[in-house]
């Protein structure tokens, strides 16, 4: 008995579709526990079928429970279309955002019924995490934080951004992570004003801002954390000002997080504080995002999101202020929404820290 398959069946029963297929690795990991890259899942009221080719049959035997596992040869999309006909499916839902037009067309070519692109099937299920998923993300977060503690002493004069990014990613693998959950961001000095800058050859100098945004993937789940420091000495009064403001914005947003809150209202709490201090234009991204099997998931904490927080959702809270030519500050934590508030999965200190030279 697979509870996630049952939950999807309930959603299907409310929709026009009588079956569902997925070629998406994160979805198939969620629904079937399969961590490989090439597979298909087909679910109807009665059937739960998992398709893979020879390379993955043994792995699927270990990982996939509650499905009939079929080894296929040839084009996966074609086999999916044929299986859909075989089980008598007429209208088949699939996740629009997780498939290419080419995949859709290839399945359709082999299937005589109708394909129905949907936005919120598995995505809706995935945004509320169960206990095992919360523990997996907590584990990924703890692993990443232990790497941070190991890497901080390596921030010495002359070290390059990309060396620190590489050390962080090496630390992840050494400690048993599958790898980074996204490309590690390590930026020094004025480059820290690039919200998603790529680590380069810039060398660390006294008075530089140090912005580290990183996370790992462990047991299939992601973590995400940002900390900003000063190296050797405070870069200037401007830095203290935007650091305090960012930290306060994050604190009041974290305090507001509880079940029933609308995501755009949480975003507004942090955004209004920053705007009132005159830096509204310099906080140009959303306050946060869901994290799970993928680094960016529902719900989004931004100006447009009508999503309502529920217990078990895991989101980042990451306000930032970026001053071109000077530097930026972003402070990001990962929190799980609890019955009456939130619990932070990240514990690294946030008080302004000047790293010793
Ligand atoms: Zn991040
Ligand atoms: Zn993030």
Topology:
Blueprint: H1 3-14, E1 19-22, H2 25-32, E2 40-44, E3 48-52, H3 57-63, E4 68-71, H4 76-86, E5 91-95, H5 101-109, E6 114-118, H6 122-126, H7 131-151, H8 161-174, E7 179-180, E8 185-188, E9 209-214, E10 216-218, E11 221-222, E12 225-231, H9 237-256, H10 263-276, E13 288-290, E14 297-301, E15 314-317, E16 320-323, E17 327-330, E18 333-337, E19 342-344, E20 354-355
Parallel strand pairs: 1-5, 3-4, 5-6, 12-20
Antiparallel strand pairs: 1-2, 2-3, 7-10, 8-9, 9-12, 10-11, 13-14, 15-18, 16-17, 18-19
The site of one zinc ion has 4 residues, from loops.
Write up what this structure looks like.
The chain has helices at residues 3-14, 25-32, 57-63, 76-86, 101-109, 122-126, 131-151, 161-174, 237-256, 263-276, and strands at 19-22, 40-44, 48-52, 68-71, 91-95, 114-118, 179-180, 185-188, 209-214, 216-218, 221-222, 225-231, 288-290, 297-301, 314-317, 320-323, 327-330, 333-337, 342-344, 354-355. By secondary structure, the protein is of the alpha+beta class. A 6-stranded mixed sheet has the order 4-3-2-1-5-6, sandwiched between helices. Strands 8-9-12-20 form a 4-stranded mixed sheet, with helices on one face. A 3-stranded antiparallel sheet has the order 7-10-11. α4 (76-86) packs across α5 (101-109). The chain is elongated, with a radius of gyration of 23 Å. It binds zinc ion (2 copies). One zinc ion binds next to loops.
